[in-house]
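We treat protein structure as text, and this decision shapes the records that our systems exchange. We quote a single record here, exactly as it is kept in our systems:
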Amino acid sequence: MDIYSFKKETGKKIEKFQSDFIMSRITKTHKDAHIGCMHLGEHGVIGYHQAIVPQLLLVVEGEGMVRGEEERFTPVERSDAVYWRKDEWHETKTETGLTAIVIESEELDVSALATI
């Protein structure tokens, strides 16, 4: 399990085409990807299971705890990105609620994300 950040401070200012915004790159993939939004309520949990393909969990609201194959949980909050490799066992839980975008694909390139 690796934890990254997509906070504004990790992004790059874009001014091309008379634009004015910050872009925090997330991932690139050349294979099909499944993208979904997970809504965990109070005491919500995504139970301990094995990743069928590489997975990237992007916390967009709330906070919680994640773990990989070790029994130790790591806290996560808004703008944190958690990456699990294919076949890696993992779990996500929250006491107060958490909303996350999940990207799953045989090929996820997370090299553009900033490490925490």
